[in-house]
Design a protein that fits this description.
The complex is a heterotrimer. Chain A is α/β, with parallel strands linked by helices. Chain A contains eleven helices and twelve strands. In chain A, the strands form two sheets. Chain A has an eight-stranded mixed sheet, sandwiched between helices. In chain A, strands 2-1-4-5 form a four-stranded antiparallel sheet, with helices on one face. In chain B, helix 3 crosses helix 4. The two termini of chain B are 28 Å apart. Chain B contains eleven helices and twelve strands. Chain B has one domain (6-95, 176-320): 3-Layer(aba) Sandwich (Rossmann fold), CATH 3.40.50. In chain B, strand 11 and strand 12 (318-320) form a beta hairpin. By secondary structure, chain C is mainly α. Chain C contains 14 helices and no strands. Chain C has helices at 2-13, 16-38, 40-43, 81-117, 119-134, 137-147, 152-163, 165-179, 182-189, 194-202, 207-230, 242-249, 258-285, 287-301. Classes of the chains: A alpha/beta, B alpha/beta, C mainly alpha. At the A-B interface, helix 6, helix 7, helix 8, helix 9 and helix 10 of A face helix 5, helix 6, helix 7, helix 8 and helix 9 of B.
């Protein structure tokens, strides 16, 4: 879709994150790299324990003890971002990058009207006068499709329905006029018809405002609807990355294929659902080789010997697999 | 036609709401389930689909006699169970069971797996003590695909999918004929869901079970269900053979629900000029007259806002409640 | 609001070792209290009751005129203060344990009934608790003591009558939330009889919070017993109590401070120790709290 861009906005470079627990050190993210260019949308897809949410928190500087960055860098327009302190103040997070969370009710301040939560951002970021800020807040609520925005700015979060709350969250995230929006499972808690509304809204906003999008989800369907590129996470590593059309049509990693088959809405009615056998590995007891090998139907001795690196399998398409699916095998 | 195993007739479940006003104030009721008629044949799976507030969970709980019924009847194998109490109600548990949504909360964290699975046998006197229940527990764990050494461990040693298997083993211990599965895979990872859904299907083939499979996710339901029932605002708006409902939905809400499902196919997703269904899922409190869906319906006419459409057989075996279609 | 933020900030900066030392101190105090109370006659160097005017108001050993015979000095009647503190621990321990046992059991039963039966019974019982809490506790104690003769038994009765409501409220709220747990519904669905559901699935949830509350209440009762005895409506001489000793020594505050201060110190150390113990218990029974402490300790070690 989007042609490769020479200077990406966000670069995540060989990021390693670990959590210190009583049972041991959990390697939640193990050497993840990706980049997002202007106007580009990347879908980070993975199941529980894949490390996708931790990556988002780290980019936003929200990673908290017991989590810590062991190695690697996050750069915004070539400039490295700091992490480690509890909430590093800089002029990127909350300015050029902002985030929308899954649980809007928990993320919004229950004691402040939604409008105030937007104007707070506006006065801090742009030093707007209270009156202009309020006008802008109304505009933002209108932008995210909240009916009667002039009345709704005075409402508290609990007076909004689930879908409206998520829209309000998006309005707050957009208030600082970010270049990159990180969306961490923003539709997972919503009803199907409301999820469709939010996807439609995000797609529309991305086109109108030229936003870059990092969309984190477990749902391949949502990625298909929103993202140009996909990175598939498994047990803290990216196992496959490439353009969405490529990956959805010709997955190279057996895990991606399994995931696609699991979520495929096949049209042959009553039939057996396809999935992946076994369970994801315990991060404290990772196998020596490929983390997916114990569940993989193609695994052999070589897969268990060493962790396979990401290697090109097509134009702009890479997979971390010793036996990637090729040709006729690479179907969903 | 075989007589139904479970038959729900004009069932109403209303919840009185406590009014916030100190004095007076109108007594309000939430109509969680409003006049639902539904039957499930032996060996059949009915998929019950709806969004939050549609009343699908309440309907499932009402059939299991877990919530008070306001009006209507529930019959099980031709016996009226609407008013069962005490010991009779407890005996009913041998015939109908529940599989929970939450694989983490639904197992007592302090009990070993063997005690969890043996508990139904003990409380119904099928086994006198844990030792007598042990062989049966082993068989059940084997049936749901858990290793034998699972018996001695505590639930926290298991992943979500495995815990769901433990929950299913517990539900099967008393050899029930009917199981309400309340969103049994919603809390599981996508790649694990198939394991649980296929297990439920295998068990049905093996044991001749009937299921009421409750879900908000149409794509899971259609794989396991013979018939699909769709609820909206406490009402059953459509019910019919799984394939039929999927391929040719009648009710505009069923159509929107199918349309709203995103598919993992970027080409199809982008090509689709999606105009999502506007509006919110309705509140069950003091619903307006007429069709519950009228306020969001693109086809709504005046009549839809005045009179409630009855559930009618629009095609053989395929019912819908709509004036327009 | 501000105070809350400030206190949480303090908690954050608290190094981990402080909590551990506090726990060690708490456990030591409680163990010591129990040993003293149980073995008082064997440990106490002197008879705590027989007055000896010849020996009155002797200072503790570290002051001029003090001697090792009377380590903590003597009171206005010439009785050994150390021996009186050792014997006085019995009143504190007995009052604390019996009140927590009586009020705890009664409150737990009320809370269980209220939480399980629900409906009108619940409303009635909780209104009763509300009214009872709204009534000044000290006044009720004084009323009861005015009717009955003041003694340790009366103190226990009076404090129990005032102390059960907090147990009832805690137990009720835990029962109500435990009833919503999916595994409790699961127990009902498989056909457990109510008694089994309660004992097997709901009551185990009570253990940890009840234990912590009981320990905290114990500390409060020790204080309350001392206060009633100090006011002269609690334990009566010749029986012994720290509160009583504080009261009887208060006339000599300026020429013999130790008569008041040392029993007072015993009260303070006991209450402090028991509170530390409660804090430690809360951490021990809560796995999340334990995990947080571990992470904090690691972060501290690495600077």
């Amino acid at each position: 879709m989007t042609p490769p861009v020479p200077t990406p906005w966000l670069e995540v470079d060989d990021l390693w994150i670990e959590f210190v627990t009583r049972r041991g050190i959990v390697p939640a993210v193990r050497g993840v790299s990706f980049a997002i260019g202007p106007g580009e949308s990347l879908g980070l897809v993975g199941e529980s324990g894949s490390g996708k949410t931790v990556i988002a928190q780290t980019i936003m500087g929200l990673l908290q003890s017991p989590g810590r960055v062991k190695r690697g860098a996050v750069r915004w327009q070539g400039k490295p971002l700091r992490f480690g302190d509890r909430f590093p103040r800089d002029d990127v997070r909350g300015h050029d990058i902002s985030i929308v969370f899954q649980d809007a009710l928990a993320a919004l301040n229950p004691l402040l009207p939604v409008g105030t939560q937007i104007t707070e951002v506006l006065t801090r970021r742009f030093s707007l006068s209270p009156k202009t800020a309020k006008e802008r807040a109304v505009e933002l609520l209108a932008l995210v499709g909240i009916p009667e925005p002039r009345e709704r700015v005075r409402n508290y979060p609990h007076e909004f329905s689930g879908g409206m709350r998520q829209r309000a969250m998006i309005a707050i995230a957009l208030a600082c006029e970010p270049k990159l929006l990180i969306a961490d499972e923003p539709t997972t808690a919503l009803d199907v018809t409301i999820q469709a509304q939010i996807i439609y809204l995000l797609r529309d906003l991305q086109q109108r405002l030229g936003l870059s999008l990092l969309f984190i989800t477990h749902d391949l369907g949502v990625i298909a609807a929103l993202c140009d590129r996909v990175a598939v996470c498994y047990s803290g590593k990216i196992v496959e990355t490439g353009p969405a059309e490529q990956i959805f049509a010709r997955p190279a990693h057996p895990y991606t294929q399994g995931l696609l088959q699991s979520s495929a809405a096949r049209d042959d009615g009553r039939d057996r659902l396809l999935g992946i056998d076994g369970t994801p590995p315990d991060l404290l007891a990772l196998p020596p080789g490929c983390a997916f090998a114990p569940r993989c139907f193609r695994a052999d001795a070589a897969c268990n010997a060493a962790v396979p690196p990401l290697a090109g399998v097509g134009v702009d398409h890479a997979a971390a697999c010793i036996h990637p699916l090729v040709g006729a095998e690479a179907v969903r | 036609m075989t007589p139904p195993l479970v038959a729900v007739d004009r069932l109403k479940v209303y919840f009185p709401l406590r009014s916030l006003a100190l004095f007076g104030g109108r007594k309000r009721v939430a109509r969680a389930v409003d006049d639902v008629t539904l039957s499930i044949a032996p060996g059949e799976t009915v998929g019950l689909v709806g969004e939050s507030g549609s009343g699908k969970t309440t309907l499932g709980r009402a059939i299991l006699r877990r919530v008070p019924v306001t009006a209507g009847t529930i019959r099980f194998r031709d016996a009226d169970i609407t008013k069962l109490e005490g010991e009779e109600l407890r005996q009913l548990r041998r015939h109908m069971q529940l599989v929970f949504q939450d694989p983490y909360g639904s197992l007592n964290p302090r009990m070993r797996v063997k005690d969890i699975v043996a508990e139904p046998l003990l409380v119904h006197g099928v086994a006198r003590d844990p030792a007598e229940a042990a062989p049966r527990v082993r068989k059940l764990l084997d049936l749901v695909g858990l290793p034998t050494d699972a018996a001695e461990r505590l639930p926290h040693a298991f992943s979500g999918g495995q815990r769901q298997r433990i929950g299913i083993a517990r539900a099967l211990a008393l050899e029930p004929e009917f199981i309400v599965a309340d969103e049994p895979v919603s809390a599981l990872d996508v790649s694990i869901r198939a394991q649980v859904v296929n297990l439920l299907q295998d068990l049905q083939a093996q044991l001749g079970l009937s299921y009421l499979f409750i879900s908000h996710d149409l794509s899971v339901v259609r794989h396991i269900s013979h018939r699909i029932a769709i609820m909206y605002g406490g009402k059953l708006v459509e019910i019919g053979p799984s394939k039929e409902v999927h391929a040719r939905p009648i009710h505009p809400y069923a159509e929107s629900l199918l349309e709203a499902v995103v598919v993992p196919d970027p080409v199809r997703e982008r090509a689709r000029a999606r105009v999502p269904l506007a509006g919110e899922t309705p509140s069950p409190i003091d619903p307006p007259p007429g069709c519950r869906f009228a306020s969001r319906c693109p086809l709504a006419q005046n009549r839809c806002r005045m009179d409630e459409p009855p559930l009618e057989e629009k095609k053989p075996g395929h019912f819908a409640a709509c004036w327009v279609r | 609001m501000v105070a809350e933020v400030a206190s949480s900030a303090v908690k954050m900066r608290q190094p981990a070792w402080w909590r551990d030392y506090a726990a060690v101190f708490g456990i030591a105090v409680v163990v010591l209290l129990i040993l003293l109370a149980v073995f008082a006659p064997y440990i106490a160097p002197h008879d705590p009751v027989i007055p000896s005017l010849r020996l009155r108001l002797k200072p503790p050993v570290w002051m001029d005129g003090g001697s090792w015979t009377y380590v903590l000095g003597t009171d206005h009647l010439g009785r050994d203060i150390l021996s009186r503190i050792i014997h006085g621990s019995r009143a504190s321990l007995i009052a604390g344990v019996s009140v927590v046992a009586i009020a705890g059991s009664f409150g737990t039963i009320v809370g269980l009934i209220s939480g399980f039966v629900g409906g009108r019974v619940d409303t009635l019982m909780m209104r009763w608790v509300d009214v009872h809490i709204a009534f000044p506790g000290l006044l009720i104690s004084l009323l009861i003591i005015a009717v009955l003769k003041p003694s340790l038994g009366t103190v226990v009765i009076a404090l129990s009558i005032n102390g059960w409501m907090v147990f009832a409220r805690l137990v009720r709220s835990i029962v109500l939330s435990a009833r919503q747990l999916p595994y409790v519904e699961a127990a009902e669905v498989i056909g457990c009889k109510p008694v089994r559901t309660i004992f097997r699935h709901i009551l185990p949830n009570l253990a940890a919070p009840l234990l912590t509350l009981a320990v905290l209440e114990f500390a409060r009762i020790v204080l309350a017993e001392a206060a009633l005895s100090f006011l002269g409506v609690g334990i009566q001489p010749p029986a012994m109590s720290w509160g009583l000793d504080v009261a009887s020594g208060r006339n000599y505050l300026f020429n013999a401070w130790w008569v008041v201060t040392l029993p007072g110190l015993a009260i303070t150390i006991t209450v402090l120790g028991v509170n530390f113990l409660a804090g430690w218990l809360r951490v021990v029974v809560d796995p999340y709290e334990g995990e947080k402490r571990f992470a904090r300790a690691v972060a501290n070690r690495e600077g």
